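User: Predict structure, ligand coenzyme A.
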Amino acid sequence: MTFNKENKGLRDVIADESKIGFIDSQKGILSYRGYTVQTLAKNSSFIETSHLLLYGKLPTQSELQAFDKKLRKNRDLPANVLKMTKLFPPKAHPMVSLQTIVAAMGAFSEDPAAAKPREILLDRCIELVAQFPTIIAACWRAKSKKSFIKPNPKLDHSSNFLAMLTGKVPDAETAKMFDVCLVLHAEHSFNASTFTGRVVASTLSSLHASITGAIGSLYGPLHGGANEKVLQMIAEIKNPADVESWVLGKFARKEKIMGMGHPIYQVKDPRSYILEEMLKQLSQKKHNSKDYETLKKIEEVTRREMEKRGKTDVWPNVDFFSGALYKLMDIPVELFTPLFAMARISGWAAHILEQLEDNRIYRPDCDYVGPSNLSYVDISQR
Ligand SMILES: CC(C)(COP(=O)(O)OP(=O)(O)OC[C@H]1O[C@@H](n2cnc3c(N)ncnc32)[C@H](O)[C@@H]1OP(=O)(O)O)[C@@H](O)C(=O)NCCC(=O)NCCS
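Assistant: Predicted complex:
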C-alpha cells in the first residue's frame, strides 16, 4: 500500500461508521441523528439537541425535564478548580484556560474512559456539558479582574451562561439567538477536534483527557479559531468600500480569507445561512450593519476572485458570520472559540461514547520516505 497524496490529512478516508452526524458536502446537508440542522435550529433547544446527541433520541417531556434538572444541578465547579481559574496570566487565551481547567477537572473526577457501566461515563459527559459555561465565564471574569458570578439554577442553559459572563440576564430574544448558535455548533461528524477526541478515547484514556485533546485541536485557526480571526480581519477593514482592495491584497500575498472555504462542503455551509439571517436581523435591530455589509462584500469579492482562478467551492463556512453575531451580543472576541467548544462538548461526548461502544485503538500507517541504512558517525567526527 502506498500513500496517495489526494488523501493527505486523511481526506476522503472513511475512518469508521457513525450514527451521530451526517454531512452531504455537495447538497449542503448537515443532520444530527437524522434531523437536519435547520429543523433543530427552528424547533429545538441546545439542551434538547444535547439529549438527542448523547442518548440518540429526542427526549419526551419528562426526560427533557429530568435532563435539564441534572444539568442545572451540575453547573458548579469544585472549589479548588474555581481557585485555579484565577491563576492564569491575563494574556492567557481563554481556550488555553479552558483546556487546562478541563484537564485539571479530570483529577477531581473518577473518570476512566473505560468506565463500566456506560451510565457512569454518560453522567460524566453530562457534567461536562453543564460545567463548560461555568468554566468559560469564570476564567473570563478572572481575566477581566471581575468577581465570579455563581450559576443561577433558575435560568436556562444559555441565559445562565450570558448572565454569568456579563452580570446581566439577557433578554429572551438574545438568549434564543445564542441558544440557536449553540445548536448549530454542537456536532459536525469526524472533524479534526472530534476525531482527536475519538483517537484519544480509543486508547481507553480518560474522558477528560480525550476532551482536553479535542479542545486543543479546536483552538487552531484552520478549525474553531477561524471565527476569532474573521473578526480580526474585519477590524482591519475600516469601511465596506475598502473590501475590494483589501481582498485583492490578500490574494496577492497568497493569504487565506478566514471564514471562507471548508474541508468538506463544496457549497455554502448550511449553518452559515441561519447565522447570516440572525446577523442580519440583529444588525437591523441594533442599527449597526457595518460588519454585516463588510462580510457580504468580502464574500462577493472572494467568490469572484476564486471563480476567476477556477475554484468554485470556496464559500462562507460556519465561522464567517458567527463572530459578528456574537459581537453584536457584546461577547468578547477571544471567547468565540470557547463558545464553539461550549456547544461542541455535546458532539464530542456523543462521539467518545460511540467510540467506546465498539472500540479499536487508532493506528494509521505512513509511507516512510526518509533515509535508511545510515552509518553512525561518532559525535567527534561530525
Ligand atoms: C478550511 C480550509 C482549511 C479547507 O482547506 P482545504 O480543503 O484543505 O483546502 P486548501 O487549504 O488546500 O485550499 C485549496 C485551494 O483553495 C484556496 N483556498 C481555500 N480556502 C481559501 C480561503 N479561505 N482564502 C483563500 N484561498 C483559499 C487555497 O489557497 C488553495 O489554493 P491552491 O490550490 O492554489 O493552493 C481552508 O479553506 C481555509 O484555510 N479556510 C480559512 C480558515 C477557515 O475559515 N477555517 C474554518 C473551517 S470550518
